[in-house]
């Protein structure tokens, strides 16, 4: 399989100096403070998922700007008859995927967790379906989501998504059946990048599990012959030749490698050394920047599928130990 990035020994040594944009922490403090005034406005409706071991609820909460964000809440059926509080997992979706159908993402509920599967606003028309729109506008952008609102961090698409993620953690931690001190966040690709942001920005996250995370070390990703979504950056800059500094300054506000410096919870990363979508050097940049306890599972001969079911089994064992 052709590889576009560094060798594995070089990856272990790859520690780029990633400059932080001026006012990074102030930007996020202001953003979260502005959003705190919106009540969570949680609604729950039971749905028939066709399963006997998992109960599913159609959950809606108020995300960025009070916008309704959809999610599935999966609970082990036995938990509804038990008085012991459950550990929880908030799951974020890959690029242009949504929460899907009620039975699609139930692994963590089957493992005994309260499992909240958050829609990504404006997405869910790629590899699986979504039900959450994004009512906010955008300036000029290339098709995709990475350059939407690229002219200023306040307008960028991922500012809204990261706020949604923070509030999703708050929703699950506040559920009557959930132990608020044992809630983890996870996701693959874009979901991994969102998990890194939630781990840095949300209160009370107990563990972070980013799989082959997207949204890390943007300049490095843009300089390599990657596939979409990172290739969206190059296409935009090929037209907007005078905006290079502006674009990378905006994107830096959403860089998982910078978010990782604010981490406090233990993390289990995964990386695929032959990844042509999220280059392994960008994942290692986030891993090496991560300030709390961390591990990384390396899949040397895999592309963006990463560890797949092997990683899922490793996560289950690791999370049970971390939250014990």
TrEMBL record:
Give the UniProt record's GO annotations in the biological process aspect.
Answer: polysaccharide metabolic process
Q: Where is the active site?
A: 189 (nucleophile), 275 (charge relay system), 304 (charge relay system)
Offer one Pfam family short name for this entry.
Answer: AXE1
The chain positions of domain Acetyl xylan esterase read 1-321
Cited InterPro entries: AB_hydrolase_fold, AXE1_dom, CE7
Instruction: Kindly list the GO molecular function terms attached to this UniProt entry.
Output: carboxylic ester hydrolase activity
Q: Which residues bind substrate?
A: 95
Q: What is this protein called?
A: Cephalosporin-C deacetylase
Species assigned in the record: Nocardioides terrae
